[in-house]
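The instructor's notes for this session suggest beginning with a concrete chain rather than abstract definitions. Hand out the sequence below and ask the class to guess, before any prediction is shown, which regions might be ordered.
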Amino acid sequence: MERHIERLENDIKNFPKTDDSQDKFVQKIMYGFSKHSREQYEKLSIMHKNMQKLYESLGSYFAFDPHTVSIEDFFIELANFRTLFLEAVKENHKKREMEEKIKRAKLAKEKAEREKQERQQKKKQLIDMNKGTVELPSWSFGMLRKLLNNNAGCSLRECLHGVGGDDWEKRML
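After discussion, reveal the predicted structure:
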């Protein structure tokens, strides 16, 4: 590109002068274009050198040789990595959700199992009660003794209040 600008500048200098005094194409237009092109090329050249330095620092950071790997290849690989990384994050999130769902289902199954065992145990106790092997709480013996011995004339509620206290109904349940 620099050679083309130099050739343009040489062509402008060596361009033969015209006899027409009104013809200012070479002197004004082409000379201005040449000057503007030179300035833009200098800016572009500085930007390119800065880009090369930054790319070399990227090469040292990501551990690749910037002279053998093109910029395009590097950014294609970087974009592929990003895509695969985001997919992996999504998969991990789904996996975590599935594990939590399985854990909740397992806990619910264990709870249902415990409740089922408790129901079966209560049912067994009721069956045992019907067979005549009832285990009574210790306070009930005192109540029965009182009923049988000296409070034969009182009602059941009065006798229970006297033996078990005010919360006898709650304890019976």
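Then share the key points. The helical segments are 2-14, 25-62, 71-131, 138-149, 156-164, 168-172. DSSP finds six helices and no strands in the chain.
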